[in-house]
Amino acid sequence: MQRARCLEMICPELEDKLVVTIMGACAQELYDLGDRDNYFYLQHAMGLASSIGLGLAMHLPHERVIVLDGDGSVLMNLGTFATLARYRPRNLVHIVFDNGSLLSTGGFTSHTTSGITDLAAIARGAGIEHVASVDSAVAFGEAFVEALEREDLSVIVAKVDAVGPEHYGMDLQLPENAFRFKRWIQQRKRAAAS
């Protein structure tokens, strides 16, 4: 299963949600599908997409927050699962694309490659109730739909191939992305208040 295909599958559902991506391949593949103001590509901050997503979910409980993460990033910040379980934001879906590789930073294998480290088991062990581990596009789609319908903290660990985009390069700098993302949130708040 390829991450790009998974992103393509869920892209129509992301239109009205706050989306935070980790750096590198995942961000580029989402960008290539069609950049939107409600996407925050967390460039140069490996391991922190889930932390940003948690802050957004807690601060904006009426918005649905989707975090698109990677195995390397989660391994850098394993405490994120315990923190997510502790605060249990019901409006957060955390998707971890596990390609067993630090693809965006040189292609080195990650700890999940050996089959010893199981991110879904770690999430469950941290106290997250709704965790799905999937390895097919159909199972991924079903897990995503269930997570949206559930309206509770959900983690999806999707085993994907260690392949990335053909090119890297967004015509969008981090400060511009951050200001645009903030404006989108403010407009949503104003519309909800009217």
What's this model, at a glance?
With 194 residues, the protein is of the alpha/beta class.
Structural class: alpha/beta
**Looking at this structure, what is the CATH superfamily?**
Thiamin diphosphate (ThDP)-binding fold, Pyr/PP domains
Instruction: Describe the strand arrangement of the main beta sheet, using strand numbers.
Output: 2-1-3-4-8-7
Termini separation comes to 43 Å
Proportion in helices: 40-55%
Approximate strand percentage = 15-25%
If classified by CATH, what would the architecture be?
3-Layer(aba) Sandwich
Strand runs, count: 8
CATH uppermost class: Alpha Beta
Largest β-sheet summary:
6 strands, parallel
Question: How many separate helices?
Answer: 8
Shape: globular
CATH topology-level fold name: Rossmann fold
Give the SSE order as H and E letters.
HEHEHEHHEEEHEHEH
* Uncertain runs: none
How many domains make up the coordinates? 1
What would your notes on this structure say?
44% of the residues lie in helices and 18% in strands. By secondary structure, it is of the alpha/beta class. It has one domain: Thiamin diphosphate (ThDP)-binding fold, Pyr/PP domains (Rossmann fold, 3-Layer(aba) Sandwich). The strands form 2 sheets. The chain has a 6-stranded parallel sheet with strand order 2-1-3-4-8-7, with helices on both faces. A two-stranded antiparallel ribbon has the order 5-6. A hairpin with a 5-residue loop joins strand 5 (101-102) and strand 6. The longest helix has 20 residues, at 174-193.
